[in-house]
Amino acid sequence: MTRDEIKSFCAALPHATHVVQWGGSDVYKIGGKLFAVVGMGGNADAVTFKTSHLAFEILSDSPGLRPAPYLASRGLKWIQHYGPPGLTDQSLRDHIRASYDMVAAGLTRKLRAELGLG
Questions:
Q1: Cα dist. 34→7, 78, 84, 88, 106 in Å?
Q2: Do the beta carbons of residue 115 and residue 15 sit within 8 Å?
Q3: Which residue from 30, 37, 60, 87 could staple onto 48, CB 3.0 to 4.6 Å apart?
Q4: How far apart are the C-alpha atoms of 104 and 62, rounded to whole Å?
Q5: Helix (H) or strand (E) holding 29
């Protein structure tokens, strides 16, 4: 996926917000909480997303993927897709959506209700 395709996918998720921070990275949030970053770590095409513990263990050693700089070093389960071969486009979309879903599930009940997330 291109940077523009990743940004369009993230922006299309319900209630996703976008800010530019951390030296020009495109940061996507739900309810004010981070679910994806495009362009972090000096790589304009890198995309960083939250994972489950199991996915983190599997993806950490995959070519083109690594524990996300800064986030993973603090014990958080975040992966950065930084180069080939990496994930297929569909797999990358699936992982970004899973990140979004995990973050949304962690929001307070009140905020989830305000956003219409059940």
A1: 14, 11, 25, 23, 11
A2: yes
A3: 37
A4: 27
A5: strand 25-30
Euclidean distance between CA atoms 30 and 16, whole angstroms: 5
Q: Give the pLDDT confidence of 7-64 residue by residue, as tens digits.
A: 999 999 999 999 999 888 999 999 999 999 999 767 878 999 999 999 999 999 999 9
Separation CA 118–CA 114 (nearest Å): 9
Helix (H, G, I), strand (E, B) or coil at 91: helix
What distances in angstroms separate CA 40 from CA 5, 59, 99, 113, one per listed residue?
A: 16, 18, 16, 31
The amino acid present at 65, given as its one-letter code, is L
Residue 80 burial (C-beta neighbours within 10 Å; 0-12, 13-18, 19+):
buried
Q: What angle do CA 21, 27, 30 make, to 5 degrees?
A: 130
pLDDT per position as a tens digit, 68-104: 988 877 778 999 999 999 999 999 999 999 999 999 9
